[in-house]
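This entry is retained here.
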Amino acid sequence: MATRMLLLSDTHLPARAKALQQQVWALVDAVDVVVHAGDWVDVATLDALSARAARLVGVAGNNDGPELWARLGEVARVEVEGVRFAVIHETGASAGRERRMDERFGPGSDAPADVLVFGHSHIPWDSTAPSGLRLLNPGSPTDRRRQPVGTVMTLTVDDGAVRDVALVETPR
């Protein structure tokens, strides 16, 4: 059976927006797993997503305080339909990212992943390292920075494969 997922990062609530858009909440309601790659900023967002999402996986980011770090930590791992996901907030500069993340999360690492979800830059990213590790950054639904509009990602995991990765615009 296919598992639908929503990838979020860098919500920065209530600093960059007062609330998540209704469109984002509708996506939360429609999926089986929500992944948040850090920079929640407030605990209330974690609590709200925890209460509403069927399943929530998340990490803390550089703008998150001690309570979020205590509850979430730096790295999260989850297996969905045979696909191993790792989640982290920061991956460093875009130059050399695939190589660095391959060393940390790829097949030769202590705990290899098939997909790495990350945030921090607010810039959507979808690439594959030489080992096959897929790197996904959903951008930010609330703080678009230099992007034309805020974004999140959706995908489906089915029969051990990631399918239908889509960047979803989240205008405010």
Observations:
- The longest strand covers residues 161-169.
